[in-house]
Design a protein that fits this description.
- The chain has 299 residues and is mostly beta strands.
- It has two domains: 114 residues, no CATH class; 107 residues.
- Helices cover 12% and strands 48% of the residues.
- It has a nine-stranded mixed β-sheet. It has a five-stranded antiparallel β-sheet with strand order 1-6-7-8-9, with no helix packed on it. Strands 2-3-4-5 form a four-stranded antiparallel β-sheet, with no helix packed on it.
């Protein structure tokens, strides 16, 4: 029996290592893809979003239409097996929102309660202001988990058990008020958080207040990383908390918001979305202080 000796050149080994690295990275991305949230801005009267809502490995269809007479949004879900159902609005609000070119519908698809099935979150508006609907799709129908007139929405991870915490909020009475929810037995229930869990709401209010007063040159504002030279005067529409990081003491050390505003250009309204990063500068167990460390305009 002859002993076979294989000799690999250095170039072949490098190529093999690169291919193996690509395969490993691809596998990691594929696994993490299921846990990420999908955010879609619907700026047309008709649109279709494809996403695996029920975790069967196949894409379902979320179909968005608007009533031609009223402009009300109509949202239907068609599952991969062909079954369909509609998302019904809050009985008090009576609509999922109205189409607006400068205040378009935002749809977030996210597994809120870590059961591998995704929820559908709608951020929209009517003549009275912002609206939020949160739906859970199960057994061929949509169940509304929460809804109301909120201008701020977000999901963050609990620093204690990594469970999702839903954040709903409003700007009122010269401040930002937050409501925290978590999932229990498939339902949303109030979540008690520490007093220091402010998520930079005072800084958020100050930025919104600045935007609504006048045009501001960012050179005159105390911001570390200014990726935008001017903050245009406009009206606050809504905001989304996209990320929160924590100190070793489980206090939010950094918060990132997408803040949507509108202003008038040549007598026409257009929306601007700012990405703002707030960083903890002074810890206080009742009123921690944050500052803006990054500000940019995103599409």
């Amino acid at each position: 029996m002859k002993l076979r000796v294989y000799i690999f050149k250095k170039k072949q080994l490098i190529t093999a290592a690169i291919i193996l690295s690509i395969l490993i990275i691809g596998a990691i991305l594929l696994i993490s893809y299921k846990t990420r949230q999908t955010l879609n801005t619907i700026d047309t009267t008709k649109s279709t979003i494809y996403a695996d809502i029920n975790n069967d490995g196949k894409n379902d269809s979320i179909i968005i239409n608007t009533d031609k007479k009223t402009g009300k949004y109509i949202v239907d879900v068609i599952s991969s097996d062909g079954n369909g159902y509609s998302l019904e609005p809050d009985a008090t609000i009576k609509s999922l929102g109205y189409y607006s070119s400068w205040w378009p519908l935002k749809i977030t698809i996210l597994d809120i309660n870590n059961d591998k099935d995704s929820e559908i979150i709608l951020q929209s508006s009517d003549e009275k202001g912002p609206i939020i609907h949160i739906f859970k799709c199960i057994n061929g129908k949509a169940e509304r988990l929460a809804s109301g007139r909120y201008s701020i929405f977000g999901t963050i991870k609990s620093p204690e058990d990594n469970a999702n915490i839903i954040v709903l909020g409003n700007v009122k009475n010269s401040s930002v008020d937050f409501k925290f929810l978590t999932t229990k037995f498939g339902k949303l229930s109030p979540q008690i958080v520490p007093t220091a869990f402010t998520l930079g709401k005072n800084t958020l209010y100050s930025l919104i207040n600045f935007i609504q007063k006048e045009d501001i040159e960012t050179s005159n504002v105390n911001i570390e990383n200014k990726l935008v030279s001017k903050i245009s005067k406009g009206s606050f529409l809504d905001a989304k908390l996209t990320e929160a990081k924590y100190t070793k003491y489980n206090i939010p050390s950094e918060c990132i918001y997408l803040i949507r505003t509108t202003n008038s250009v040549s007598n026409e309204k257009e929306s601007i979305t700012y990405k703002a990063r707030f960083s903890l500068t002074k810890y206080d167990n009742k009123n921690p202080e944050y500052r803006i460390t990054q500000l940019d305009i995103v599409k």
